[in-house]
Design a protein that fits this description.
Helix content of chain A: 40-55%
Number of domains of chain A: 2
CATH architecture of the largest domain in chain A: Orthogonal Bundle
Oligomer: heterodimer
Order of helices and strands of chain B: HEEEHEEHEHEEHEHEHH
Structural class of chain B: alpha/beta
Number of strands of chain A: 18
Structural class of chain A: alpha+beta
CATH class of the largest domain in chain B: Alpha Beta
Radius of gyration of chain A: 22 Å
Strand content of chain B: 5-15%
Largest sheet of chain A: 5 strands, mixed
Shape of chain B: globular
CATH topology of the largest domain in chain B: Rossmann fold
Distance between the termini of chain B: 40 Å
Strand content of chain A: 15-25%
CATH topology of the largest domain in chain A: Cytochrome-c3 Hydrogenase, chain B
Distance between the termini of chain A: 33 Å
Largest interface: A-B, 66 and 71 residues
Number of domains of chain B: 2
Number of helices of chain B: 8
Chain lengths: 494, 275
């Protein structure tokens, strides 16, 4: 890829450009151009439809991880259908289903065109499930209400005996209309809705939204606010990764790590509450910066309690690696190859567990991550063990990042009012949440209001990874595989 | 090395379960703020500073001259109104206790008064049935996984919900009631009703979080029903976004009559907080 030959406009993460500068191609040419960039190392961050007076246009957002740039192009209005990108690049499959569902535009040749999250009456409209036929084949249906305190979704397994031949995941139960509500906004409830797109990723989604708002306003948040946001984001990662290690241990009946991590996860949540009062970081991120500051005494308490919690988490993780019974339940279970991971566009720890160096903090640094970065933690084997190992490594890395960065803060204001947003513009923000890349794309109208807003939670990329991981596995290993991905239902359903 | 390490670790740490409710409640984070108190008498005439800052329109004034009212069921406890209020009419109480039995008991400043009316325990027949053993089926109906996470926290060693005989079970057939989170999306409407139908009577329903009480940040969206009581009858409301685990535990124990007489009877004026 070079900037002189690409039919895309290039921009860095966390920036905006006028809509008129986004190149427009025929739908066929946009598909061809996108496919070419994806073949040459690009990665599809978003692909969505935007309604306009002239009809529905397609917008393609690609990340070039190697040279820290994002690329965007659009199509001229589509008439009913266009040739499916999915046929060339499977990572587009859900994006194209979504365009079809929202805009009644058909990606011709899409192999599995069915609803994503549309609701009919009192339940999601899920269409036909994929079926395997055979005398020995049976079907297992699980959900939407699961056997635990967990969000709803439906899993349909095609099994031969204990072996899973195919798993189809059908969601939509959690749809709350977030993207629709953003149109004409931001509204007074917008930031609260951004914080609850996926409530365990409050800081990640709120940061992506506010970085985008600042980009549209032509400014960036005060440096001290960027520092506090990074602290909040890493605490969010530490809490969730620790909880996941505990949940993985629990699913293989290894109670020492399960019970220790349950407690330590709470310790991390309480550190977020130390900053802003709320264990999930509600109110921490505001449109023009942050809602809460860290005085010296609070900072010192935070640093001390953090050191203890990171050490405890590290120790509880070590028990996993030293227990042969845990190793035999993690190793070789739910393997996703690095080639599969690339093809379906996995992100976050699930991608890094397949050996892919893919981390928006490193590849597309914005905010505080321009000055300080944690090393990207990878593990090559693609199995449950790898997904556990990557989390444990990231607990160490985030802990170390915070240890140094807590002492490296800058003075200054934490919040400044935003100037009015640019009219007729497009802005993109990527944030590496604990699950992976959170992507927000906004388009504004002539008055600077949101004319369209696309949210891509990492789960949108990764649910297919869980389905692939289950192929050829025993159905009894579904829980441990599911925990090893720990994807968001509401982040997907929006 | 091997299994010895975790065993030694456990022995060294000892019992990590909190003393509450026999002992003092753990302290809320100092910036949490707890519940809210509204004194409409302190409102300045014609002042509307708090109305536009509330993300969920939890604060309303029924007519221009009327006093404001604050619906803690809708409230996200973001404290924007506390900051905006020029006369200190809305203040944080620091109190974790927020559970009520009736929806209208969450509305402050109207007929209700300045503070919320905490939940009474179940009547004697139900308390005899459930007081020492309550099995709940949790249903997330559009929950964002924050309420769900802090419910899971109650099962960790620090809180150990099992010591009260309260347990989350996998099947509604084994349950005495439902604990609902989320604004009840239309996509979960049917599943929630089916789950409720499957619980044998007599059964309880507990709504946890601003979403399950009134729709939370999604109040007014056509994609959601706007809370659990749009679909099933609710016996206990636990406000917050999400409620602190201590608020949830207090609500459950209050409902079951499991709090000591002193803890249950105390007024929520914050003056006798033991944290």
């Amino acid at each position: 890829m070079s900037s002189t030959t690409t039919p895309f406009a290039l921009l860095p993460n966390g920036s905006a450009l006028p809509w008129s500068e986004v190149p427009a191609w025929s739908p066929e040419d946009l598909v061809t151009a996108t496919a070419r960039e994806l073949s040459e190392g690009g990665r599809l961050c978003a692909w969505f439809g935007q309604s306009s007076k002239a009809g529905v246009v397609l917008v393609s957002v690609i990340a070039f991880d190697a040279d820290a740039s994002l690329a965007v192009a659009r199509s001229t209005p589509v008439h009913r259908s266009y040739p499916a990108l999915t046929l060339l690049h499977p990572q587009a499959h859900l994006f194209e289903r979504e365009v079809w569902e929202q805009h009644q535009v058909t990606p011709e040749g899409h192999p599995w065109l069915k609803p994503v999250r549309a609701v009919a009456g009192s339940h999601p409209l899920q269409g036909e499930y994929f079926r395997v036929n055979g005398a020995q084949v049976h079907e297992v249906a699980v959900g939407p209400v699961h056997a635990g305190i967990i969000e709803p979704g439906h899993f349909r397994f095609q099994c031969e005996g204990e072996e899973v031949l195919h798993l189809e995941i059908a969601l939509g139960y959690q749809h709350r209309g977030i993207e629709r509500a953003l149109r004409g906004g931001p509204h007074r409830a917008t930031l609260a809705q951004m914080e609850t797109i996926a409530g365990d990723s409050t800081v990640a989604h709120a940061t992506a939204h506010t970085v985008l708002r600042a980009a549209l306003a032509g400014v960036e948040a005060p440096l001290r606010a960027q520092w506090i946001r990074a602290i909040g984001l890493e605490l969010e990662r530490l809490a969730n990764h620790t909880g996941d290690l505990g949940a993985l241990a629990n699913d293989v009946a290894f109670l020492p790590t399960a019970s220790a991590c349950g407690k330590i996860r709470g310790d991390f949540l309480n550190l977020t509450a130390l900053i802003c009062g709320n264990r999930f970081g509600r109110g921490l991120v505001r449109a023009g910066g942050c809602g809460y500051d860290l005085d010296a005494a609070r900072l010192s308490t935070l640093a001390n309690r953090l050191a203890t919690a990171v050490r405890d988490a590290d120790q509880a993780a070590t028990w996993l690696w030293e227990s042969p019974s845990v190793q035999s339940r993690f190793e070789g279970i739910g393997t996703v190859s690095s080639r599969q991971a690339t093809e379906i566009g996995l992100v976050g720890p699930a991608a890094r567990a397949c050996g892919l160096v893919r981390d928006a903090r490193f590849d597309h640094p914005t905010g505080w991550y321009r000055f300080a970065q944690a090393p990207v933690a990878v593990w090559p084997t693609g199995d449950v063990l790898a997904r556990a190992r990557v989390r444990a490594l990231e607990i160490q890395r985030s802990g170390e990042f915070l240890r140094t960065q807590l002492a490296a803060g800058v003075e200054g204001p934490i919040e400044e009012p935003l100037p009015p947003p640019a009219p007729d513009a497009l802005a993109i923000a990527l944030v590496e949440g604990w699950r992976g890349e959170v992507c927000h794309v906004a388009l504004t109208d002539h008055a600077g209001r949101f004319a369209g807003y696309k949210i891509v939670d990492p789960s949108f990329h990764n649910w297919m990874g869980l389905a692939l991981a289950l192929r050829g596995q025993a159905i009894s290993d579904f829980p441990v595989n599911n925990k090893s991905f720990n994807l968001s239902y509401c982040g997907f359903d929006l | 090395m091997g299994l010895l390490d975790p065993l030694l670790h456990r022995a060294r740490r000892g019992c990590e379960t909190m003393a509450y409710p026999a002992g003092p409640a753990p302290a809320l984070p100092d910036r949490h703020g707890g519940g809210l108190r509204l004194d409409p008498g302190a409102c300045r005439e014609g002042c509307t500073e708090c109305l536009p800052v509330c993300p969920t329109e939890a604060i309303v004034r029924s007519s221009p001259g009327a006093p404001v009212s604050l619906d803690l069921g809708r409230c996200l406890f973001c404290s924007a109104c506390v900051t905006a209020c020029p006369t200190g009419a809305i203040t944080q109480t620091g109190d974790h206790r927020l559970a009520v039995r009736r929806r209208e008991d969450l509305v402050l400043g109207d007929a209700q008064g300045k503070e919320l009316r905490l939940a009474r325990q179940l009547d004697e027949r139900l308390r005899k049935l459930f007081g020492r053993s309550l099995r709940l089926r949790q249903v997330s109906a559009g929950g964002c996984n924050a309420c769900e996470s802090d419910l899971n926290v109650l099962n960790t060693i620090g809180w150990d919900l099992g010591r009260f005989g309260i347990q989350f079970v996998a099947s509604p057939r084994h349950a005495d009631g439902l604990l609902i989170t989320g604004p009840v999306t239309r996509g979960m409407d049917l599943a929630l009703r089916k789950t409720w139908d499957a619980v044998p009577a007599p059964k309880l329903v507990i709504a946890v979080g601003a979403c399950a009480i009134a729709g939370g940040p999604f109040v007014g969206h056509p994609e959601v029903k706007g809370g659990a009581d749009a679909v099933v009858p609710v016996d206990l409301y636990l406000p917050g976004c999400p409620p602190h685990p201590l608020t949830i535990l207090d609500g459950l124990l209050r409902l079951l009559g499991r709090l000591g007489a002193g803890e249950a009877a105390r007024r929520s004026d914050g003056s006798d907080r033991s944290v």
